[in-house]
Write a structure and sequence with these properties.
CATH topology: Nuclear Transport Factor 2, Chain: A
Largest sheet: 6 strands, mixed
Radius of gyration: 15 Å
Number of domains: 1
Number of strands: 6
Order of helices and strands: HHHEEHEEEE
Helix content: 25-40%
CATH architecture: Roll
Oligomer: single chain
Strand order of the largest sheet: 2-1-6-5-4-3
Distance between the termini: 59 Å
CATH class: Alpha Beta
Number of helices: 4
Mean pLDDT: 88
Length: about 130
């Protein structure tokens, strides 16, 4: 009997889980990104925090921007995966911002993410 696609994800190394997560985001496959996250997932970043995957997606939707992440470096140490990437925004502004995100992967799913970047590089809305 062949394993289900979901079961295959559980066999991935932490670094592969994170790379799959980024690939899902870049193709707007949010169902796949969500499937790679634990229900008790926690996110901390400079502009927001989230206590669940659904809260993260809801808050990200409110940003209303288009972007793709270009991974530059990815490193794994046990259940911790660290990334450095360029986040390339194309709407409503054009900018490339260097970011770093640290993940904890447990039982084949992302348990937490901590995003770090210089918020001064984020263009301010008109009229601010």
């Amino acid at each position: 009997m062949r394993p289900l696609a979901f079961e295959k994800e559980l066999d991935l190394k932490p670094i592969d889980v994170v790379k799959s997560y980024y690939a899902a985001f870049d193709t707007h496959d949010f169902a796949k990104a969500r499937a790679l996250m634990r229900d008790d997932f926690r996110f901390v970043g400079p502009l927001m925090e989230a206590s669940s995957p659904d809260e993260l997606f809801s808050k990200m939707k409110a940003f209303d921007c288009d972007f793709k992440n270009h991974l530059l470096q990815t490193a794994e140490n046990g259940t911790t995966v660290a990334t450095i990437f360029d986040c390339v925004f194309t709407r409503p502004f054009n900018a490339t911002i260097r970011m770093s995100e640290w993940f904890t992967v447990e039982e084949g799913k992302i348990a937490s993410a901590n995003l770090v970047y210089d918020t001064r590089q984020m263009p301010m809305p008109s009229g601010s």
